[in-house]
Amino acid sequence: MNTRELIAITESEGLPAFRGRQVTDWLYKQGACDFDQMLTLPAPFREKLKANYTVGRSREITRQQASDGTIKLLLELMDGAKVETVGMLYAERFSCCVSTQAGCPVGCAFCATGQSGFKRNLTPGEIVDQVLTVNGAVNTATEARPQLKIDHVTFMGMGEPLLNYNSTVKALRLLNEEMGISARHLTVSTIGYVPGIRSLMKEKLPVTLAVSLHAPNDELRRRLIPSLTRWNVAKIIETCREYFMATGRRITIEYCLIDKINDSQEEAVQLSELLRGLNCHVNLIPFNPAAGLPFKTSPQERVKAFSAVLSSHGIQVTQRLRRGADIDAACGQLRRREEKPPVA
Questions:
Q1: Catalytic residue among 96, 256, 280, 331, which?
Q2: pLDDT band for position 344 (50/70/90)?
Q3: Which residues carry a binding-site annotation for S-adenosyl-L-methionine?
Q4: What is the 3-state secondary structure (H, E, C) of 263-301?
Q5: What are phi and psi of 211, to 5 degrees?
Q6: In whole numbers, what is the pLDDT of the chain averaged over residues?
Q7: Angle between the 3-12 and 17-24 helix axes, to the nearest 10 degrees?
Q8: pLDDT tens digits for 149-203?
Q9: Residue positions forming the annotated binding site
Q10: Is 84 a catalytic residue?
């Protein structure tokens, strides 16, 4: 719920509007896990809230912390569904990567989440809860830097955000309006779901759009993302141009480099030609190996060569820093490990 909805509840109980704002503060600023913690509220009002509402916080099942400070959590939701979320500490920012679905219906060939199937969409509260939980987990685990606050959120965990459109947009607004995270520090990553991109550009939310392209041509993209062939790569890039024109926000193109699959010089040239004239930044992501997937990480020399081709064509390109390399940091790995049936 947002402040407006919480004020409506408090006023229906004959209480002033500031009580609703207090509830908002307890939920989104202080991370309260239940109404009993909201000590600034009158006791009778707390009891009414307990009788009619639930603070739907998740339960931490597994925590992994990497040597670089990256922390990954496997969370169990109130119905038993499990999702992953990641917190990443950088010198200049504290970033959280959230899931929008339990599992994923897209089923990318190189993604551990896609191999585990799809269970359901998450609610806006379940998405925001991940940010609150990671914030608390990092602050308890990092004594040298207390009271850190997440200031960047990427919708890039389990699931396709634009296939859970309403929850994604409401969660974006809650993070922006209630938690004070700048819309420009919010990123929505999509596999290229064109209707969702077109809807998002009308929301007047200046969030960054990241498109997980992973292939410069339709044949290769069909191999890597067989379930999403309705829109070819040209249509996806055309829609990116529309998004930039509507929002003024530069597009991020995510490209996962897989050894001898999509990392050749020829494919780098194809990608350069595809992106010509688009105000974009290419983020090269070395594939993060996962058990059971028949792919390998591109050698660093091939990554550098691919990057050099893009740069020579005037395209801004960076290589994503590998975070959490010594834990199950890739999307879906921790959930898959937890839910894998025992060997008889």
A1: 331
A2: very low
A3: 159-160, 189, 212-214, 288
A4: CCHHHHHHHHHHCCCCCEEEEEEECCCCCCCCCCECCHH
A5: -110, 120
A6: 90
A7: 130
A8: 899 999 999 999 999 999 999 999 999 999 999 999 999 999 999 999 999 999 9
A9: 104, 108, 111, 159-160, 189, 212-214, 288
A10: yes
Question: What are the pLDDT digits (tens) for 66-107?
Answer: 887 789 999 999 999 999 999 998 877 889 999 999 999 998
Looking up tokens 């829609």, which residue turns up? Answer: 239
Active site residue 256: no
Q: Name the nearest CA neighbour of 257 among 212, 311, 216, 298.
A: 298
Query: In what side-by-side order are the strands of the sheet with 94-97?
Result: 59-65, 71-76, 82-89, 94-97, 152-155, 186-190, 208-212, 251-257, 280-286, 316-319
Name which of 248, 244, 181, 254 is nearest 212 in CA terms: 254
Tokens of 46: 């707390």
Looking only at Cα atoms, what is the longest distance across the chain? 69
Cβ burial, residue 68 (10 Å; 0-12/13-18/19+): middle
What is the amino acid identity at position 95?
S
Q: How far is Cα 131 from Cα 152, in angstroms, rounded to an integer? A: 10
Helices and strands (H and E) in the chain: how many: 12, 12
Contact 113, 339 (CB under 8 A): no
Phi, psi of 40 (to 5 degrees): -80, -10
Is residue 92 within 8 Å of residue 151, measured between CB atoms?
Answer: no
Q: Are 268 and 220 in contact (CB under 8 A)?
A: no
CA distance 113 to 334: 9
Q: First-to-last CA distance in the chain?
A: 46
Domains plus CATH for the chain?
3-52 (1.10.150), 59-339 (3.20.20.70)
Write down the residue that tokens 């409401």 correspond to: 170
Which entry of 84, 178, 254, 267 is annotated as an active-site residue?
A: 84
State the pairing for strand pair 152-155/94-97. Answer: parallel
Are 290 and 333 in contact by the 8 Å Cβ rule? The answer is yes
List the beta bridge partners of residue 85.
73
Using alpha carbons only, give the angle 320, 172, 128 rounded to the nearest 5 degrees.
85
